[in-house]
Amino acid sequence: MAEFRRNHTSKGNTGPAIIRILLIVAVVGVVFYLFSNVMGKMNFDSSYALSSEEINDSLYYAPSLSHGQVVNHTYYSLSYIEEYEQAEWVAYELTKSSLQKPNVPRAKRFEDDPKVRSGSATYYDYKGSGYSRGHLAPAADMAFDKGAMEECFYMSNMSPQLSVFNGGVWNELENLVRDWAYKNGRLSIVTGPIFTEDMKRIKGGVAVPTAFYKVLLDLDAPEKKAIGFILPHEKSVERMSVYAVSVDEVERITGLDFFDQLIGDELEAKLEGQYDMSLWPLDESLYNQRVNHWNNR
Hints:
By secondary structure, the protein is α+β, with helices and mostly antiparallel strands. The protein is built from eleven helices and eleven strands. It folds into two domains: 2-47; 51-296, 3-Layer(aba) Sandwich (Extracellular Endonuclease, Chain A), CATH 3.40.570. It has helices at 2-9, 11-44, 52-60, 96-100, 123-126, 146-151, 163-166, 169-184, 247-254, 265-272, 284-292; strands at 69-72, 77-81, 86-95, 132-135, 158-161, 186-194, 200-201, 207-208, 211-218, 225-232, 244-245. The longest helix has 34 residues, at 11-44. Residues 1-14 and 27-59 have low confidence and may be disordered.
């Protein structure tokens, strides 16, 4: 106590002691503030989390050399071409686990895509045209979640398709893709129309593609593989193997570069330059359904 009183009452030492104390308090306060601020953001500030666009960019791997506005939805991404009023590609991942989930009810309404800056095609652009609103990302692939189902009914996910094509050979390929995804665990999928200069147009300037493509990539063991399909926009009685091509061939025709963010150059060249149809088994019953029933509806 005597020492305390001496320091407390000594006028010569009061100033420096107070300054030192204030400096220590200030430093501790700044450190505490910075620590609390960083920890608070890490734990509670949603701006520290990845945005849905960033998440989707990492999930769906948009093709390179896209020519339109890239739009990221929750479960798929697309590139919208204003000139043709539809997507040039739609990319998503299809998994065995999503296919095992109970199906939600099919959406009842087609909606304009609110994320397309120039405005997407509308429901009425197709009405009375003689063409169906053909899904690029199929509703059956998005049936695992109500939000996914609703998003896949955006008009940006549609292309004008002949009913006999949509319900025939295109339908068969969609069913095969689901079978392959279930068997292999997951597939990365990119699909879209093929545009040519002499395309027909319907209301709103929507172009009618001359053909459609799908490219598939399986990066899981035991067999990494890829394949492409190009289907002429018409009724077909040909087996699906007739339309199988390498991913490189689809890239040549579309001018897109698929999966370059997913795999290194060496593996990309190997997987995309060739395909083995035996690794993508066909279902004879689906072919028979198409030829004997779906083509005649």
